[in-house]
Design brief:
Layout: H1 2-13, H2 21-33, H3 41-49, E1 64-67, E2 84-87, H4 88-94, H5 99-103, H6 113-130, H7 137-146, H8 164-170
Antiparallel strand pairs: 1-2
Amino acid sequence: MTCWQYAKIIGESAGFGKKQFAFVMDRFKKLQSGEIGWSTAIREYIKEREKPNECLHCGSKQNISTDHPIPRSKGGPDTADNAVTACKKCNSSKGEKGIYEWFQLDRRYEVPRIAQGKYLKLLLGLHKEKGTLDTEVREIEELCEQCNLGDLCPEKAKLTVYCLKSILNKFKN
């Protein structure tokens, strides 16, 4: 699921929009096989510099702070790769939620590219580190039973961007 979401970002960046299935599928397969890699942190930095001192979520230039796409309270690292600019209103509203959880289903296509890219890259790295990329279906079903996302989750017993963080919490060291 992480590679699929990131392939969609690549498609959007290439100007294909969110619905260019063939291009996205090609990038998805290449990401999975390792034929192409994820963009580097420098690309995110350059994108962020396009709108300095501006809330990534709402565009406000007032009361700018730092938000963590994977909240530190949920195991997100305190690094530049897990930091984006956000106004205090958006930062407070998001609280301890992950970026997809905060945007929810009705706004899932509005997640800012920078926050989404950083979030997905971090999750992929954390999954690799913890060995959870190949989690079995029964373990995912167990997570669904414990999950508090309720109707936010579009598909029960299937790994989605909404439960990626949850699966990592289960395997915390």
